[in-house]
Structure formats: structure tokens, C-alpha cells
Amino acid sequence: MRFEGKVVLVTGGARGIGRAVTEKFHAAGASVAIVGRNEEAAKTLATELSARGAKCIGYGCDVSNGAAIDAMVDSVVKDFGKLDVLVNNAGVTQDGLVVRMSDDAWNNVIQTNLTGAFQLLRAVARIMLRARTGCIVNVSSVVGLIGNAGQANYCAAKAGLIGLTKSAAREFAPRGVRVNAIAPGMIETDMTAKLNDEQKKSLLTGVPLARAGAVGDIANAVAFLASDDASYITGQVLSVDGGMAM
Ligand code: NAP
Questions:
Q1: Which of 28, 95, 107, 128, CA to CA, is 20 to 30 A from 49?
Q2: How far is the CA of 19 from the centre of ligand 1 (A)?
Q3: Strand pairing of 7-11 and 31-36?
């Protein structure tokens, strides 16, 4: 899979799964717009990667702020001249049992993980539909498929992303724009480092392959869905979860 001449936008692209996705595309020849709340981290990684391959630029953007998203996408298109792939990866958790969950915890997670992803997809789709080509990969989660006690806000957002993926795939297919989702299982990142040993052990009992995944496992699947090898695949959810949901 090669991406020479392609421009890829990765949200949350400087850390965790997003960083592995950024590095995967860049190693395959792509230019990457690295987006995160932490502008310095995005810019530092962009400088590091640009020094050994295609141009990368870091952008500070909080995806829970719709106006900031539109401005950031305008800058990316101005800087790179086009946009071929969007990876909607940025995400947060704010866990709690349903009966104790505050409206703030609900709204924050829905705003970042679902509304932000929608607003970015909408902004990027306007460019891709005009160009009659492009590819969007939304990073959902296994818990968007099967639910998880203590994560109603997160699971609702991730399930919502799947509905968004399928609807957008149907709308955009006539213009050659594909939209798919990845549903990662338990992947070792800062997000899962917050879990205690007991929680990790209990999650792993539900994984047939009996281990957590690595960020590279997700990056490989994202790159596949964005590549020409997947040119007949749209509206799908690819589980990369060691067999957790089947
Ligand atoms: P992580 O290590 O906590 O990283 C989260 C990333 O999202 C960071 O790059 C962060 O950027 C970015 N981000 C968060 N809020 C943002 C906002 N408002 N605006 C812009 N960027 C924001 O998490 P991860 O494990 O890599 O997760 C990446 C994606 O995979 C998420 O959507 C997550 O839900 C999903 N996922 C993860 C797992 C897992 O087991 N790890 C499983 C299923 C799905 P900054 O550093 O700039 O804040």
C-alpha cells in the first residue's frame, strides 16, 4: 500500500493510535496534516517526519469546537492544495455509571467523539465530493457494537459513529467517496493505561486472542481501508479486537 502524492488528515494524530496512523501513512509516502488539541506536540511530530519524507504540518484544533474545525480544514486545504483521506480518530472517555452520569460527562463525550467527528466529516466531504474522490475512516470502538457498563456516553458516541459512517457511505458513494469505520478492541495507549489491573484482566477474559492489541494493529487496518486495495469497500465496520465481538 503506497500513498505517494496523497494528503491525509489525522485527528489526534500526535499520540496513541493516531500517532501510529500518522506514521503508517507517512512511511507509505503520504503527506499528513496532524491535528490535536496539543498544537506543540502536533507541530513537533510534523517537523520530525517532514525531515525524513513527505511534508507534514501540525495544527492545533479542538474538535469539540465546530468553528475551529472549519477554520482548520480551510488551512489544511490552503497548505496542501487538496485532501484525499480523513481519519476521524480523536476521542475521549469520561466514564461513570448511568445513574451517576452528569449531563456534562454525557455532553462532553458526545460533543468530541460524535459531533466533532460529524462536523469534520461534513467539512471534508464538501471538498471530496467536489473532487469526486476521497476516503474517510472513522475510529469507532468494539463497545459501540456491544456496549460497556460504565461507558454509556462513550458507547453511544461510538455507536453513533457507525450510523454516521453508513449514512455518509450511502450518500457519498455515487460521487466516489468511501466511508468506513474501524472498531478497535482493547489497545494499549494512554486511554487504556487509566484502567486498573482488575479492569484490564476482566476485559482480556473477553478477548479470544487473549491479549491487548498494539497501536500498529489499528494503523494497518486504517491504511488498508484508505487504500486502493479497499476500493470496493464502503459503509463497513472492521473489527480489530482479537475476536472480542463476533
Ligand atoms: P489517547 O491515547 O487517549 O489519545 C487520544 C487522542 O485524541 C489524542 O491524540 C488527543 O490529542 C486526541 N483528542 C482528544 N480530544 C480531542 C479534541 N477535543 N480535539 C482534538 N483532539 C483530541 O487515545 P487512543 O487510545 O489513541 O484513542 C484513539 C481513538 O481510538 C479514540 O477515538 C478512541 O475512542 C478509539 N479507541 C481506542 C481504544 C483503545 O483501547 N485505546 C479502543 C477503541 C477505540 P491531544 O493529545 O492533542 O489532546
A1: 128
A2: 10
A3: parallel
